[in-house]
Amino acid sequence: MALSIAIVGAGGAVGSALLMHLLKSSTLQAGDEVVLLGRGTPESSGRLFAIRMDLLDAFDESAIRISVCESIGDLKADVVIIAAGYTISPSRRTRRDLAASNQPLFQSLAAKLSRTVPNALFLIVSNPVELAVGIFAAHMEPQRVIGIGAQQDSLRFARAIASQIGVHRSKVRASVLGEHGQAMVPLWSSVHLTLDEPETASRLAALIERFENSDTRSEVNRTRDTLESLLADHQLAAAYEVMEHVSPSTRIMLEPFITHSQIHSTPNATANATLEILGAALMADGRRVHGQVQLHGQFQGIKGVCGVPLEVRLTGWQVSSQLRLTASEIADLHAAAEAIEVAIQESRKTECELLTHKR
């Protein structure tokens, strides 16, 4: 049976990158469909029709159908990827700013999509991802809603480790749970190699021994001061060089800070993480991925939105039992879940204040 994947926000930077990565990958087969959705305005629809024609010229040999849906009410899809909304910008510098801008959009999309495609699998790309996941999970089955932030952070963690021991990321597995932000929880206990090379294993063991119990928060604070000074002088290359000499835990927290000083999103890394989760859902082979989901005690007793290890099918997610966290990692994860809940409650309070002000 043909598969239909819809991308909401297909005309934006992240949505466009997702389209390209999806069509260039082997994820879809002949006869499958990609559906492009925008804001529903004439300008947005016009842009999507133009993008469609460009993609047909580029990928017609794949025999993948590419269509534009001008109204959410007409949508039919097996998977819906949410890539709509504002990104970090000079006028929206913090996650709180981003939440205030995107929360009404998340509410509107979740309400409409829950009526038109209630049985779809939803992959949430938009930020703040925890806020979006909470809103969408309140409108439909929580098991059908997955935020991709934890997978993106896990891939960054694996790359940071791989670069320090001289191998490619494909040789390293690593997990990051918690928030897609400063309350992320890198799990050193999860780090392992996918190859049997004693010398590489020795380098990894030395790296873990050096950094596993280091004070990441203090290093982040010290390094951020250095980065801010370098960025103020437009020394981007020097700022990235600093990242080569810090712990992988610090690197994954601060490297995006450098990148976002120049570009408002990371569309290619985001697309890659999204396709990894999508691929896991299509294969349904029990592989471990990571995502922000609405929990009701399924993982470490946490209730609320949090990034956790998952196994995914088109029918939804379940918590993966492949990880064994240390006591300190469990404590950090609970602290992250609490921080996420505080941020979500602050966002709701801000929305109420804005509505009251408008009245």
From TrEMBL:
**Where is each Lactate/malate dehydrogenase N-terminal domain found?**
5-147
GO MF annotations in UniProt: L-lactate dehydrogenase (NAD+) activity
Say if the entry is tagged with keyword Lipoprotein.
Answer: no
Q: Which residues participate directly in catalysis?
A: 180
Q: Which residues form the Lactate/malate dehydrogenase C-terminal domain?
A: 153-194
Keywords attached to this entry: NAD, Oxidoreductase
GO BP, sorted A to Z: lactate metabolic process
Where, by residue number, does NAD(+) bind? 9-15, 102, 125-127
What family is this protein classified in? Belongs to the LDH/MDH superfamily.
PANTHER family membership: L-2-HYDROXYCARBOXYLATE DEHYDROGENASE (NAD(P)(+)), L-LACTATE DEHYDROGENASE
Q: What is this protein called?
A: Lactate/malate dehydrogenase
- Taxonomic lineage of this organism? Bacteria, Pseudomonadati, Acidobacteriota, Terriglobia, Terriglobales
